[in-house]
Amino acid sequence: MRRILAILLENEPGSLSRIVGLFSQRAFNIETLTVAPTDDPSLSRITIATVGDDKVLEQIVKQVNKLIDVIKITDLTERAHVERELVLVKVLAMNDKSRTEVKRIADIFRGAIIDIGKQIYTIELTGDADKIAAFIKTLSYETEIVEVVRSGCVGIARGEKALKV
Amino acid sequence: MTAKLYTGAEMVVKALSALEVKYLFGYPGGSVLDIYDALFQQDDVEHVLVRHEQAATHMADGYARATGEVGYVLATSGPGATNCVTGIATAYMDSIPMVVLAGQVPTTLIGDDAFQETDIVGCSRPIVKHSFNCRRLEDIPNIIAQAAYIAKTGRPGPVVVELPKDILMPTHKAAFNIELDVQMRSYNPTVKGHPKQIKKAVKTIANAERLVVYSGGGIVLANAAELLTELVETLDAPVTNTLMGLGGISGTHKNFIGMLGMHGSLEANKTMANADVILALGARFDDRVTNNVKKFCPNATIIHVDIDPTSISKTINAHVPVVGLVDIVIEQLLAELKETNFQKNEAALKQWWQQIEGWRSVNSVSYVPPAEGGKIKPQQVVEAMYKITNGEAYVCSDVGQHQMFAAQYYPFAKPRQWINSGGLGTMGFGFPAAMGVKMAFPDSHVICITGDGSIQMNIQELSTCMQYGIPVKIISLNNRSLGMVRQWQDMVYGGRHSSSYMESLPDFVKLAEAYGHVGMQINTLDELDSKLEQAFAMKDRLVFVDVLVDEKEHVYPMQIRLGAIDDMWIKKGDKA
User: Fold this and answer.
1) Residue B207's domain is classified under what CATH number?
2) What share of residues in chain B are helix, strand, coil (percent, to 5)?
3) What per-residue confidence (pLDDT) applies to B524?
4) Of B366, B401, B409, B561, whose CA–CA distance to B485 is shortest?
5) Which of B32, B82, B493, B502 is most solvent-facing, going by the fewest CB within 10 Å?
């Protein structure tokens, strides 16, 4: 089952390598990983999307928590949460028809065209993993996809619950 | 008045002295020469020069295991640091508090593949509790204090501190500030067991009819042996120790049913298999204990007490998990037993012990003495060793058959008396570990029990022993073979002795003498006791006792691969 883990840790050199090393050392999966400092620059927040059964997930959470740099870890998928990922898609837009179709699809998915070349449109879109997959699939029916870059997902709990020190 | 200023190297030594470090085990080299210069100019911290950095880590490890204090190592960058890797991994697997100070090339050269540059923090990352890349000389004292704090608290373990040369040199100086009362927002190990879990545990214990206490190295690390004994006596429960937990309760205590696991006693493994409640204290259900996890004690309710949450339900699911320091949790359990007015279920206990006595009567840990004039059995050497030292020696083991024979035939009365590499199984560990123990307890008998294979993995330390006067007793069960490998080849590989036979052994007696020590060989049973006595009588000399033993002897009992915990070979061709 797919899970999204949010980790708050000390923003120190080597902290990220310890997390990544732990996953490979213990044969845990990483589907996506994002990392950036928080509003407090001494802290980093990592979001990891992973897959595993309950037993594996319990070990992942415990093992990550055991790292000295880690302050908190939470499984966002345990309760109501919001998940977002950013994708940039570069597509061929060779003629009027494909330009109109690409624009229409971008509008329907509430994406934005952020760069135009002679024969290229670049579209930006945010959404959860399902929406992004649907968007890329729909685009591929109408034109040729040149390049896709995904940020990996970030997530936050709904309501009052917050991951902070 | 302005504060006195110190170089980075002086700060390293001053920090160690502030932490009351007695011994620093190490080996000099380019990147740490400034630290060696600072060490030369003071008397607080004594440096012990080894002959190979791996031995420095094992010496520090042995010192830590025997005393309960942190062991300290100093190595230079590159090969000095990488030579420490096996020792760090050994300490990591057995949860031993250790701080390794490793030199590094100057910060300006890091990443350039400079001379003697390796990323030791990267190399050691999977085998340390934590590590530090020190980059500013002002940070040195507090990083060393934090390293020591992390190493010894919670579940202990090794910590690596990387020190680049340019922050150690006399060109830069700063004020020395150290906070010995370490506080970290990201590291606050749990100490007490959750009260609800304690209540649940005691309820489960009180309702048990066939309880067994399964205790491990955590008891030794937490100095909880007396509390464990009190708990076992309160419950009148059978208690088994893991290889790492031996001495956690006296080996001659009436409730002690021996070591469990691969080469454990039949009664220990049978008791586990038939228990309705298993109380696991500071043990981690290692694969050398459980055998096939799918067949592991399916009918038992498992209470698992451990300081490390990752150890709980990792291999075997725990029904009542309790996270906390095992000494404090036992105190809590004892208080709750008293609170709830616990009464022993005498009828059930009587039946349970009757069953256990039945398994005990098989006498599974036994051997057939040699016929008149036959080769000495390795077990006889351990028994003789036990007799001569009154069971009071520190026994430091290498890895192999001799390790199992020592574990089976030397009943340890006290914790920390038995020192071995249980988790990693590091050949070459025993001798330097014994040296570390002897430095901590110069007036006690310290034995390195080893074999002709293991001893050659760190034999160069005979030289260190001569330099510092470390009179350990090396007792080598010489079977001209890698005995444990040979045993598996006999049992599993059709008797094909692939690379397990040592065809060109040195003359160990002459070798010991070449280093300036005493060497002796024992060939026959009738000289075993007298020569061992002679060896132990030479209190101020290192004696290397080369005992020629029967190379055909196997370690029994032995779990049958992929079977349940109590599926065992009792002796050749004889299953339980």
Assistant:
1) 3.40.50.1220
2) 40, 20, 40
3) 96
4) B401
5) B493
> What span, in angstroms and rounded, lies between the C-alpha atoms of B330 and B201?
11
H/E segment holding residue B272? helix B266-274
Closest by CA to B121, choosing from B101, B96, B149, B92, is B101
User: Number of structural domains, chain B?
Assistant: 3
- In this structure, the answer to whether residues B202 and B335 fall within a common structural domain is yes
Note whether B311 and B218 are within 8 A (CB). no
B66 contacts B472 by C-beta, under 8 angstroms: no
Which residues are CB-contacts of B453 (< 8 A; sequence separation ≥ 6)? B400, B427, B481, B482, B483, B502
Average pLDDT over residues B297-310: 96
**Structural domains in chain A plus CATH codes:** 2-78 (3.30.70.260), 82-154 (3.30.70.1150)
Q: Which residues of B touch A13 (CB under 8 A)?
A: 133, 135
Residues B216-239, mean pLDDT to the nearest whole number: 98
Q: Residues B222-240: what's their mean pLDDT?
A: 98
- pLDDT tens digits, B392-431: 999 999 999 999 999 999 999 999 999 999 999 999 999 9
- Do residues B258 and B365 make contact, with C-beta atoms less than 8 angstroms apart? yes
Asked if B253 is an interface residue toward chain A (Cβ–Cβ < 8 A), one would say: no
How deeply is B342 buried, as exposed, middle or buried, from its count of CB atoms within 10 A (0-12, 13-18, 19+)? Answer: middle
Chain B residues touching residue A58 (CB < 8 angstroms):
313
Say whether both B551 and B412 belong to one domain: yes
Backbone angles phi, psi at B353, to 5 degrees: -65, -35
| Beta carbons of B535 and B510 less than 8 angstroms apart | no
Range 313-352 of B in CB contact (< 8 A) with A:
313-314
Whole-number percent of chain B with pLDDT over 90: 97
Amino acid of residue B435 = M
Range of the domain at B442: 378-555
What is the per-residue burial (b if ≥16 Cβ within 10 Å, else e) of A34-56? bbeeeeeeebbbbbbbbeeeeeb
Give yes or no: residues B550 and B407 share one domain. Answer: yes
CA nearest B185 in A: which residue? A71
Residue B576 CA to residue B574 CA, distance in Å, equals: 7
Local structure of A157: helix, strand or coil: strand
CB contact under 8 A, A18 and B125: yes
B207 shares a domain with B169: no
Regarding an ipTM greater than 0.90, the answer is yes
- Using a 10 angstrom Cβ sphere, with 0-12 exposed, 13-18 middle and 19 or more buried, the burial of residue B276 is middle
Q: CA-to-CA distance for B510 and B413, rounded, in angstroms? A: 35
Query: CA torsion B227→B228→B229→B232, rounded to 10°?
Result: 120
> Using CA atoms, how far apart are residues B420 and A161, in angstroms rounded to an integer?
48
Helix axes B378-388, B528-537, angle to 10 degrees: 40
Q: Is B479 on the interface with A (CB under 8 A)?
A: no
